[in-house]
Amino acid sequence: MKLGSSRSREQHKRRRRITALLLKIALLGGAAFAIGGYAWQTASEVMRKDVESLTARASELQDEVTGLKTELAEHKATQTQLAKQLPNKDEQKILEAARLKIGEGVTPSRITEVVSAATVLRNCDNAPTSRRLRVRTAMSGSDSTTASFADNTITVSAEGAPSLNATGQTEAWFDNTKPISITFMHLNGAAGRAQGSLPLSHAIAVAGYEYRFQVQEGPRSFIVVTMDRCKA
């Protein structure tokens, strides 16, 4: 009897140990599951916030890219517009020549007048006529000389500053180093004026013709005016 009772107690203890072990395992498993679930939930929340943050940042970057593309397009359009306004090589030569003439005393309005009178084709008589013309000064009094062109239909006169001698006294002839003023008058009332340092050029259009004048320095007191007629 004692042997059976002892064996029964031993089996009972063993079952309690096994039950306790299973209970611990169950508790540990539950705790691990709970911890795993919490960790998963926490990680999911962190990932969700990260995704939202990245999505918002991506949207901001997309807006920035769109803005940069717009600025780039506007910049290219501005560059294209500026490129159209910049002179090419031939136009640059014209501008340089105009600046040179302005530096010599030719007025911008005079240069504009000459350019406006230019035509694509020149159908000229190619029979230039030259006349010597005395330049009137303050020392020559009211008397003035003129030169006539185009069958006496165009009259040219000139006025300049008197020259000074070594002692500072005025001479009767004009100072060819200073600007002069040349007036062109047609019988029908058309008129023009060229002002500046020699040489000068001028053109007037009358009745379908363009009269082109070139003015050079001549002998003392004189200038030489050359005219050619072209179809306007």
Please, could you describe this protein's structure?
- By secondary structure, the protein is an alpha+beta fold.
- The protein has two domains: 1-86; 90-231, no CATH class.
- It is built from three helices and eleven strands.
- The strands form three sheets. Strands 1, 2, 9, 10 and 11 form a five-stranded antiparallel sheet that branches. The protein has a four-stranded antiparallel sheet with strand order 3-4-7-8, with no helix packed on it. A two-stranded antiparallel sheet has the order 5-6.
- Strand 5 (162-164) and strand 6 form a beta hairpin.
- The chain is rod-shaped, with a radius of gyration of 51 Å.
- Residues 44-78 form a coiled coil.
- Keywords: Coiled coil, Membrane, Transmembrane, Transmembrane helix.
- The chain crosses the membrane at residues 21-40.
Secondary structure elements and pairings:
Elements: H1 2-85, H2 89-103, H3 108-117, E1 123-124, E2 129-134, E3 146-149, E4 154-159, E5 162-164, E6 170-174, E7 180-186, E8 191-196, E9 200-206, E10 209-217, E11 222-231
Antiparallel strand pairs: 1-11, 2-11, 3-4, 4-7, 5-6, 7-8, 9-10, 10-11
